[in-house]
Amino acid sequence: MKDIKIGRINLRAKYFIFFILGILILIVSILFSHKKVLKESPYSIDFLNVNTEYADTTLKYLSNEEKVGQLIIADFGKAENVKTDSVIKLLYQILPGGIVYSTDSIFQFLNYQNIIQKYSKINPFVFLPEESGVFHFKETENLPNFNFLTAFENDSIKRNYMTVISKIAKQINLSSLFSDISSGNINDNDYKVLNSSDNRIAISQKLMSFANASQFLTDDSIRFELNSQLISEGLTGIILDEDENSDIIQKIKNEYNYEGLFLKRINSKLMNSDSVAIFINSGTDLFITKEPKKLKKILAEMIENELINNEILTASVRKILLAKTWTGLENNSRILKPDIDSLLKSPATLISENTVYRNSINLIKNKNNVLPFKNLKKAKFQILVTGNADLREFYKTFKTYYSVKSLFIDISDEYYIKKIKKIRKKNNLIIAMNSIKIDSALINAILEHNETQSLTLVNFGKPSNLNFTDSFSAVIQVFGNSEKEQHYAADAIFGGIPINSKYPYYIKNFKVSDSVVQIKKVRVSECLPEEIGLNALVLSKIDSIAKDGIRRGAFPGCQIVVLKNGYNVYNKSFGWHTYAKRRRVRNTDLYDLASVTKIAATTTAAMKLYSQGKIRLNDKLGRFFRDTKIDYSNIKPDTLINIDTLKIAEIRDFNKLLKFQDTLHINDSVLIAFDTLIVTTNPRNNIFQVKIRDLLLHKSGITPTLPILPYVIFKKNFYDSLEFIKQRFYENIKNDTSVKNKTIE
Asked: Which among 290, 555, 610, 611 has the fewest CB atoms less than 10 Å away?
C-alpha cells in the first residue's frame, strides 16, 4: 500500500511539473510572439503599391550612369551660397535622386524649385537641411512647430494641425515633413508625434517620413512596439548615420521585415569604392553627401569595373522611382507665389495655428480659484517681467482688461535683485518669466518683499522652474514665448479664453496634478471671425459703410464692434469725435451713454431671436404679446381751430358755409369764417400691427406725435401746404368721415 501511495505522489508531482513547464512555455511564446508575426507578415509600404508604369518606362531609357545618379542626394546647404548655373550644371551632369537645400524665404525656395523642375530630366526629391523643417522659413517661423503637439492631449486638434502643415509642405513640393535629413537628428518629440495615431496624416498627403536607424537598435520592448507601429503606418525610409555600418540594414530587415528605402549619410572617409559597394550590396538605396560629383565619379567607376550588382542597382532605382510617383514628382508643376501665400493666410491655417497655441497653455496651479481675476473695480495689479527681453504683447493684452504698469528686470543686470524692491505692496503681483531659469536668489527676493494680495507666475518656457512654485497662488505654464502665446497667456489670466488641460510632461522633483485644472471663459476676448462661424470678408464690408457715412456727413466718426459667443471679431474706429476733426476716434475711447436703447437693447435682442429662429422679419409685433389691447382713455382731446379769410364775392352758397362755421364780418368785401373742432382719436395703426422688419428700419409709421388729429387725418401728406390741408378737411366734412365732438376711428 505504501508503494502505491508513493507512486501516486510521484505521478502527481510529474503532472504538476509538466503543468508549470507548460505555463512557462506559454508565457515565453506570448512575450516573443510579436517578433514572429513581424517575420511572417511584412508591412505594406504605400509607395510600393502605386502604378508602376512611370518607373518601368523610365528605367528602360536610363543608362547605368544615370541610374547611379539617382542614388545620390546632393546636399547644397544654403542655396544662396550656390550659383544658379552651378545647380543647373549639376542637374545635367549627375541627375541626382534628391537635393537638400534651404533658403531664408519660402518664396526664394519656390524660385529654386521651379528652376530644378525646369532643368531636371527626372525630378529629384527635395529636402530641407534644418531640423525645424517647414517651420524654418521666415514666413512660417511663427507657426507652432510639432513640439507644441506634445503639450496637450486633444487628438482632434493635433490631427487637424498636422493636415494643415502637411498641405503647406506639399504645396511647395517638399518631399518630407519631419526629417532633418542632412544631420539626422529627429528629436524625441518629433518621434512621439510621428508614432502617434495621427502619423498617417503626413502619409495621406503623400509626404515621405523618415526615422534614424539608431532608433531600431534597441531591445527595449516599448521602443520595439513604437517602431513596429511606425513601420505599419507607412514609414518611407530609414537613415543610417555616418558611423553606422551596413549590418544594421540586414538586422532591421530581419527584425521588422521592412521593405522601404534605406538612406546612408556618407563623408569623405567613407567615399571609396569598397565602402560604397558594401552599402549598395547590403540594400542602401540613397546616399546623402556634400560631395555629389566625387561620389558620382566613384559610382561610375564601380559600374565600369562591375563592382555593383546590376540587379540590385536596378531594384533600388525602381524603388526610388516608385517613391517619386507616389509623391507626385513624375509630373512637373510650376509653383506660384499667390498659391502658397493664400494657403499661409487662409482661415484654415490661421484657425489651426491659434488653436494649437491656445491649447499648449497649461494651468498648473490655481489655489482658491484665484484665476480668472474677478471684481476688477477693487483690484490692483502689477506685472514683473524677468528675462533677457520684455514681453510686450503680454503687457499690451493685459492692458485691454485692466490698466496696469509693468516693471521689466533684465536678468543680465547685476543689480536686478535690488530693482525688485520697486514692486508695489498690496497689489496682485503677476510675475512673467521670459525663458529664463529661476534661481533661489530671485525667488527669495520676490518672497521677502511679498505683501501682495496674490502671487501669480506665468512661466514662458523652462518647465524646470515649476519646482520653485510652492509660494505662488496660481501658475500658468506657457510652452514658448511667441507673441500669440503672450497674448493668450494674458487672456487666460482674466478668463478671456478657457483652459481645460492636464500638463503632460514629467518634471523632476515636481508633482504634476493628475486631475484637469480649469479656467472658465468669463470675459470677452478676440478671435478670428471664422473661428466662430463668421466670414472676415463679409465683415470687412462694414469699413466701406462707415467711411461712406462719414463722407456724406451723416456722422463725424464712429467705433464699430462685432461680438459673438463672447468673442470680439471686429473692432475698428473711423473718423473724428466732432466735425471739427480735432480728435480721432480710437478703440480705447470711452463714451457717455446717450439714446442707445434701440441699438443696445431692441436691435440686439431682435438679432438674437432671429438667429435662434424664434422670430421672422415679417412677423407683426403683436404675435409675441398675449394682450394687444391699448387703453386710449388717457388720451386728451385735441382742439383744432380753423380760421379762413374769405372774399364775400367768391362765396356762392352762404347756407352751406354757415351750416358748419361761425363768421366774423370784417367789411363789405371780406369776412372771417371759423369753427372749433374737439376730437379724441383712436389711431387705426398701432405698435402691435407693425412688422419686425419695419420696426428695425424705422418704417413703422408710428411717431412720437400720436395721437394728434392732423397726423391721423393727413398722415399721407403731412407736409402738404395749408391750402391742400384745408381742401381735404372740407372734403372729409362733406363725407361725414368725422363728426364734431365724436370719436374718429
From this structure: 611
Alpha-carbon gap, residue 677 to 687, rounded angstroms: 27
Four-CA torsion 344, 350, 356, 358, nearest 10 degrees: 150
CB atoms within 10 A of CB 463: 19
Q: How far is CA 89 from the centre of its chain?
A: 43
Whether 120 and 91 have beta carbons less than 8 Å apart is answered as yes
The strand pairing partners of 32, in sequence order, are none
Using alpha carbons, select from 149, 86, 158, 87 the residue that is nearest to residue 116: 87
Cis peptide before 144 (omega within 30 of 0): no
Q: Give the C-alpha separation, 428 to 399, whole Å.
A: 14
Q: Domain range spanning residue 507?
A: 361-526
Identify the three-state secondary structure at position 640: strand
Give the sign of the dihedral formed by CA 550, CA 554, CA 555, CA 559: negative
Please tell me whether residues 203 and 300 are part of one structural domain: yes
Beta bridge partners of 100: 75, 127
Q: And the C-alpha cell for 479? A: 510652452
For strand 98-102 and strand 125-127, is the pairing parallel, antiparallel, or unpaired?
parallel
State residue 574's pLDDT score. 97
Number of structural domains in the chain? 5
User: Is the torsion defined by CA of 309, 311, 313, 316 positive or negative?
Assistant: negative
Cα–Cα distances (Å) from 581 to 62, 552, 556, 560, 578, in that order, read 75, 15, 8, 19, 6
The residue with greater pLDDT, 531 or 389, is 531
| Residue 559 CA from chain centroid, whole number | 26
Extract the C-alpha cell encoding 179: 526629417
Q: Please report, in angstroms and rounded to a whole number, the separation of the first and last CA atoms in the chain.
A: 128
DSSP 8-state symbol, 531: G
d(CA 99, CA 474): 50
Contacts of 374 by beta carbon, 8 Å cutoff, 6+ apart:
522
For residue 509, is it within any domain? yes
Q: Is-cis flag, bond preceding 504, omega within 30?
A: no
Q: What are the φ and ψ backbone dihedral angles of 252, each rounded to 5 degrees?
A: -65, -40
User: Among 460, 491, 526, which residue terminates a domain?
Assistant: 526
Phi-psi region of 541 (alpha: psi -120 to 50; beta: other; left: phi over 0): alpha
SS3 category, 311: helix
Q: Which of the pair, 332 or 485, is modelled with greater confidence?
A: 485
Residues 130 and 236 in one domain: yes
| pLDDT tens figures, 308-352 | 888 999 999 999 999 999 999 988 777 888 899 999 999 999 999
* 476 and 367 assigned to the same domain: yes
- pLDDT greater than 50 at residue 743: no
Within 8 A by CB and 6+ apart from 497, the residues are 358, 488, 491, 519, 521, 525
pLDDT in tens, 581-616: 999 999 988 877 666 666 667 777 888 888 888 888
Quote the Cα angle for 430-435-441, to 5°: 65
DSSP string, 470-518: TT-SEEEEES---HHHHHHHHHHHTTSS-EEE---S-BTTB---SSPEE
Nearest CA-CA partner of 438 in 394, 471, 404, 483: 471
Taking the C-alpha atoms of residue 594 and residue 574, their distance in angstroms, rounded to an integer, is 19
Crossing angle of helices 483-493 and 392-401, in 10° steps, is 30
Grid cell 507607412 in the structure block, residue: 234
Number of H helices, E strands in the chain: 27, 21
173: exposed, middle or buried (Cβ count in 10 Å: 0-12, 13-18, 19+): buried
Q: How many C-beta atoms lie closer than 10 Å to residue 549's C-beta?
A: 16
How far apart, in whole angstroms, are the C-alpha atoms of residue 491 and residue 397?
7
Same domain (yes/no): 460, 537: no
CA distances from 280 to 123, 290, 656 (A): 22, 18, 125
Q: What is d(CA 275, CA 651) in angstroms, rounded to the nearest whole number?
A: 130
Give yes or no: residues 247 and 272 share one domain.
yes
Separation between Cα atoms, residue 10 and residue 12, nearest integer Å: 5
Q: 25: how many CB neighbours lie within 10 A of its CB?
A: 10
